[in-house]
Amino acid sequence: ADEIAAILDRIGIGSTDVVGYSMGGTIAQALAARHPGRVRRLVLIATFAAFPQHRRRALTFGALVTRAWERLTGLGTPEVRTGYLLRAGAVEHKHSRWLWQETHRRHPDAGAQSTLATVRFSSIDWVGRLDVPTLVIVPTRDMLVPAQWQLELASLIPDSKTVEIEGAHHEVV
Question: Three-class SS of residue 107?
């Protein structure tokens, strides 16, 4: 969030509309909270205010085991992500080579660190104080961020608007 504010300073943008998708939605929330006045309007897609405590432990454990597996075998998250996105229909099979290359560009340690940071994130104590028009877009069949979590986020933000996209998965964008 602070880096985004610095980029806005660098390119001469005082205030702007911000869209945050998935993990980017947590960053967008933090930007609006840490840098009031920088965000004119906020759109949050397939994101959350906090992971439930019981899910935090499981995901932290999973991220650590996945990273250990990747270090031992050289295989892991990119292969799983590619397979999932193709099977879910989020990416057409004709683009599978591109998808494979994109998922393998991400550094495994950075991926594990971003997963752990996402799991630790919580805006529950402060998101309700955001004073910016907010739209929360909820894909109802999201397998990564359950719709219930997204609706909870919307309920915490006074006067936010919610749009549910029936049957959409996490890859709704």
Answer: coil
- Residues 84 and 170: their CA atoms lie apart, in Å, by 11
Cβ atoms of 31 and 9 within 8 Å: the answer is: no
Bridge-based pairing of strands 39-45 and 134-139 is parallel
Give the number of residues written for the chain.
Answer: 173
Single-letter code of the amino acid located at 71: R
Q: What is the pLDDT tens value at each position of the chain, 173 positions in all?
A: 999 999 999 999 999 999 999 999 999 999 999 998 999 999 999 999 998 888 888 777 777 787 777 777 776 677 777 777 788 777 778 888 888 888 777 777 777 788 888 889 999 999 999 999 999 999 999 988 999 999 999 999 999 999 999 999 888 88
Distances (CA, A) of 165 to 1, 2, 37, 133, 168: 27, 31, 30, 20, 6
Cα end-to-end distance, the chain, whole Å: 21
